[in-house]
Design brief:
Blueprint: E1 3-11, E2 16-24, E3 37-40, E4 46-59, E5 84-94, H1 99-102, E6 110-114, E7 123-127, E8 129-133, E9 137-141, H2 153-156, E10 157-159, E11 166-168, H3 170-183, E12 187-193, E13 196-210, E14 213-226, E15 232-243, E16 248-254, E17 262-263, E18 269-278, E19 283-293, E20 298-308
Main location: mitochondrion
GO molecular function: DNA binding
Pfam family, one: DUF525
Length: about 325
């Protein structure tokens, strides 16, 4: 059927369910348009689509057919052996009312930019912006003229009738065009080890001069998903960061972003973003997460190798949060 049951939200003060919309049919073909309201199928927050991105997914769980019969060389875990396939992702706004409810499963996602001045370590963020995959979206419709609470909602979108109910303002189109190089999602890397799937999305942020050298910055977003039924906990991270300048850095530490998330059947996923800088225009990263089972035993989950590329550096600096 095209219409799904209505759903509601908890109101903390009265614990009363209140209808906020009606589910629509999932789109098996084609993409969702600007202004599509949705629930996130993994994290449960309300959001609205700003615009789509066409990404290439490099999925190490899909084994390519062996055409020439040659055995793989030892250690051939490089990204060249994995063929990319095109997949639709979306830039979305998160309803700020739902951020407290997802904080245990995800950072309140933000898009970070390099600041427009000489301090090479200065970052600024636009909170409540996320990137979601097509299958993350559970579409719904609402009769509310402002169904999503976010400071950019009314700057970027306007209520229109009859359909679609929300369309892009010129400010959204201008913001997307100006910041395209710094917002664009191009490559997604995915790998599963013992039912724990790790997805990595890297973003180039730009270059800054620092102490007579160039420093190149990237942001990367990581999602861990427990695809099985066993409760596990992330305990440690182990990164290897290779720079084109020839350096190889090892980073070890407890947890991620100060957390040691538990992944269970009820709350199977955790998502976070972090940053890395190199004194070279490219490099790559790979590594492992140390995961602990309830019986105290451990196993290592592979983080798929991903490239850090700066080929957008001939573009203008980010225009960021200006209108």
């Amino acid at each position: 059927t095209s219409m799904w049951p209505v759903f509601g939200r908890n109101r903390p003060e009265g614990k009363v369910l209140e209808t906020v919309g009606v589910f629509e049919a999932l789109k098996q073909h084609g993409k969702y348009e600007t202004g599509q309201l949705f629930l996130h199928s993994v994290f449960g927050y309300r959001g609205i689509v700003l615009f789509p991105w066409h990404a290439r997914i490099y999925d190490r769980d899909i084994i390519p057919p062996i055409s020439d019969g040659k055995p793989e060389p030892p250690g051939s875990h490089g990204s060249k052996e994995v063929k990319g396939r095109t997949h639709t992702y979306y830039q979305v706004l998160i309803d700020t009312r739902d951020c407290p409810h997802i904080s245990q499963r995800s950072q309140t996602e933000a898009v970070t930019f390099l600041a427009n001045h000489d301090d090479s370590r200065a970052l600024y963020a636009i909170p409540g912006l996320d990137y979601v995959s097509h299958e993350d979206i559970l579409p719904y419709n609402s009769t509310e003229q402002v169904p999503i609470q976010h400071e950019l909602f009314e700057r970027f979108l306007m209520f229109t009738t009859p359909a679609p109910p929300f369309s892009a303002r010129d400010t959204l189109k201008a913001w997307q065009e100006k910041n395209h190089p710094w917002l664009e999602l191009s490559d997604v890397h995915r790998e599963t080890t013992e039912n724990i799937r790790v997805t990595v999305i890297p973003f180039y942020m730009g270059m800054r001069d620092a102490q007579n050298s160039h420093v190149y910055w990237w942001r990367y977003c990581i999602r861990l998903e427990n695809m099985g039924s066993e409760v596990v906990q992330l305990r440690e991270r182990h990164w290897r960061i290779f720079s084109l300048s020839g350096t190889l850095e090892t980073v070890r530490g407890r947890g991620v972003v100060g957390r040691e998330p538990v992944l269970s059947k009820e709350q199977p996923a955790f998502q976070y973003s972090s940053h890395v800088s190199l004194q070279a225009p490219s490099g790559h990263m790979w590594g492992t997460f140390r995961i602990e089972r309830t019986d105290g035993s451990h196993f290592d989950v592979r983080i798929p190798p991903f490239s850090l590329e700066s080929n957008k550096d001939d573009k203008a600096p980010p225009a960021g949060y200006t209108f």
